[in-house]
Design a protein that fits this description.
With 653 residues, the chain is an alpha/beta fold. It folds into 3 domains: 214 residues, no CATH class; 151 residues, Alpha-Beta Plaits; 203 residues, EAL domain (TIM Barrel). Helix content is 62%, strand content 16%. The strands form 4 sheets. It has an 8-stranded mixed beta barrel with strand order 10-11-13-14-15-16-17-18, surrounded by 4 helices. β17, α25 and β18 form a beta-alpha-beta unit. It is rod-shaped. 32% of the residues are buried.
Length: 653
């Protein structure tokens, strides 16, 4: 017994164990199992073993009171009670909290030792040679439950020594039966240990591989394969969790939507490989800016989203947005290609449970839309004013969808005058909407609503047909200018419908002029070029509207089939206050002359402005000085009285 106790003491010493177990993983075939995985695999077996032994010896304890008396009762009952208590305690507390393999081995060895002591004590009191076979079953139990060889070898070894020793002490020799029993025990224990261990390790290997594959599949499902950022699916899961934190009062966050400005032209000109490299670099820059304080994801295409955690101040939010935009604006070096883009950002704060995920996205998207329309490449925070505007937009949008637009939409015309020849050369067609529900709605409001909702292509075609119907009654020398939106240019179907409307009108295409803004053109430059070329091939004229209000550049104008430039009214407003405005207008006029382009100056309202423009030989003028927008039926009378009106206006000057 002294030998047994010393062996157990040596095995159970943590210091000795940690020395033997320097590696923290077990190699199984080509798979490395971590200690945590070993513990997870062994724990259910050790736990069940402790429970079974505890329950069994609870029954044995009761049986002792019926089968034993005197000293035998005291010794055997005490041992069985100790075995029951220790086994159940290991099951209920120790094994469940175990985090290391050696802790499970301690539990297994302790239960094995107590399990061993019971039959040893019984044999000491009531030796029965035939009952030594009990130790065979005991060794089998050790082999099946002792997953670690550090448990099986000492447990089975001590049992073998005990069987041999008892047989020798009581019989004076080792009988053939005892030797055969020892050999059988060794063979069976070894076989069972190998089989159980290999079966367990295969099961663990299969589980680890399955978990690894599941983890990889989960990563692929939650990650954007190009940039490595979380994808749209992952973003919505994180945002729902953030909203849950807001609902419980534990969290405040800002949602930001980002759209890249200028990505599409780079992708079209240099190809998708360069575009993909650019998106990867954008993802890296977003990660650097966000660091640990924000969650960044790619929503698709060139759209990204950020969740900024914490109730940051307005100044900190402004600083974060500025760093974000500055990072996106820095030059990109993409393997031989140098690119410059920017990013517009729309922020919305979530500090209460009044908004759903879709409502938050709607407000962030509105702030982003506002940024792209007014402050391209800058951050915009959703405000109460935006909330009011969005409600108005929603009302206008819903009313547009349910209205009789053919009856409620109309066209007004404003003349473009050649002040050299003293005659009107063209009329700009201006949309008007007199809603049966809302009354008269400003064009800038309902046009923006129609653009965002996608109704603009339908409205464009309807208004174009109305305008062309009026043009049929005009003199052959008078043209009409008609505005197209970015959505019209991006839609191949819309361009086909516009071209068909021109053909079906029977009007000479040279009398029809399509105006596009710089912003609409740069949204998708290549598509805009294709659409404008198609209309130009029919004979229609092309004009760039609001020149100077956006990204004015003659570098793209020479690539477009442009006939006319319209200088934005913002320059005219400054004519009388700033001498530089007149110089800028003169420069643009001179450039247009050199490029054989007409140049119309918009928004001229006073004679003083006209006098300034006369100094630089401005020829084509549009504005209230000559006429406000007029109804269709007023156009012909206006043209009939033009000669006398022109003379009067010039004499007044």
């Amino acid at each position: 017994m002294h030998i047994v106790m010393n062996s157990l003491a040596n095995l159970l010493t943590p210091r000795r164990w940690s020395k033997k177990r320097a590696p923290q993983a077990v190699e199984t075939n080509s798979l490395t199992l971590s200690e945590a995985e070993e513990v997870a695999a062994m724990k259910p077996i050790i736990s069940s073993y402790c429970l079974i032994i505890g329950c069994y010896y609870a029954f044995v304890t009761l049986n002792r009171f019926f089968s034993e008396t005197g000293q035998g009762l005291v010794i055997l009952a005490t041992l069985s009670v100790l075995t029951t208590g220790a086994s159940l305690a290991f099951y209920a507390f120790y094994v469940k909290r175990a985090r290391h393999v050696y802790q499970l081995n301690i539990a297994s060895l302790t239960v094995n030792f107590l399990l061993f002591c019971n039959p040893v004590a019984f044999q000491a009191l009531h030796f029965n040679d035939n009952r030594l076979v009990y130790f065979i079953f005991l060794s089998l139990v050790y082999a099946m439950t002792g997953i670690s060889l550090r448990v099986v070898i000492p447990s089975v070894g001590v049992t073998l020594v005990t069987v041999a020793g008892m047989g020798y002490i009581h019989n004076g020799r080792l009988s053939v039966d005892n030797v055969a029993m020892v050999i059988l025990m060794v063979a069976l224990a070894t076989l069972l240990t190998v089989v159980v261990r290999q079966t367990l390790l295969r099961a663990v290997q299969a589980r680890v591989m399955a978990e690894d594959l599941h983890s990889k599949a989960q990563t692929m499902a939650d990650s954007d394969m190009l940039t490595g950022l979380p994808n749209r699916r992952s973003f919505f899961r994180v945002m729902e969790a953030a909203l849950a934190g807001v609902n419980t009062g534990r969290q405040v966050f800002h949602l930001a939507l980002i759209d890249l400005d200028g990505f599409k032209p780079i992708n079209d000109i240099y190809g998708h490989s360069v575009g993909d490299t650019l998106l990867i670099e954008v993802g890296n820059r977003l990660n650097q800016v966000c660091a640990d304080r924000a969650f960044a994801a790619r929503m698709g295409g060139d759209e990204f989203a950020i969740i900024l955690y914490g109730d940051v101040s307005a100044q900190l939010l402004e600083d974060f947005g500025a760093r974000l935009c500055d990072a996106l604006r820095d030059t990109y070096f993409l393997g031989g290609v140098t690119a410059n883009i920017s990013g517009s950002v729309g922020f919305v704060k979530c500090a209460s449970d009044q908004l759903t995920a879709s409502q938050l996205l709607e407000r962030a998207d509105y702030a982003l839309y506002f940024a792209k329309q007014n402050l391209r490449g800058a951050p915009v925070v959703f405000t109460d004013k935006h909330e009011a505007d969005m409600r108005d937009f929603s009302l206008v949008d819903q009313t547009l969808r349910t209205s009789d637009l053919d009856r409620e939409l109309s066209i007004m015309f404003q003349p473009q005058v050649d002040v050299v020849d003293n005659k009107t050369v063209s009329f700009e067609a201006l949309a008007r909407w007199n809603s049966a529900k809302l009354g008269s709605v400003r064009p800038d409001i309902f046009i923006k609503a129609a653009e965002r909702s996608g109704l603009i292509t339908q409205i464009t075609l309807l208004l174009l047909e109305k305008a062309l119907a009026e043009v049929r009654t005009w003199p052959e020398t008078t043209r009409v200018s008609f505005n197209l939106s970015a959505r019209d240019l991006r839609s191949g179907i819309s361009i086909v419908n516009i071209c068909n409307a021109v053909r079906n009108s029977g009007i000479d295409p040279h009398r029809i002029e399509f105006e596009i803004t710089e912003t609409a053109m740069l949204t998708d430059f290549e598509q805009a070029c294709e659409a404008l070329t198609k209309m130009k091939s029919m004979g229609c004229r092309i004009a760039i509207d609001d020149f100077g209000s956006g990204y004015s550049s003659f570098s793209y104008i020479h690539r477009l089939p442009v006939d006319k430039i319209k200088i934005d009214r913002s320059f005219v407003v400054q004519l009388l206050q700033h001498g530089s405005a007149l110089k800028i207008i003169k420069t643009i006029i001179d450039l247009c002359r050199n490029l054989n382009l007409d140049c119309v100056i918009e928004g001229v309202e006073t004679q003083a402005e006209m006098n300034k423009l006369a100094q630089i030989r401005a020829r084509y003028i549009q504005g209230y000085l000559f006429s406000k927008p007029m109804l269709a039926e007023q156009v012909l009378p206006y043209l009939e009285n033009e000669t006398s009106r022109m003379h009067a206006a010039l004499e007044a000057g």
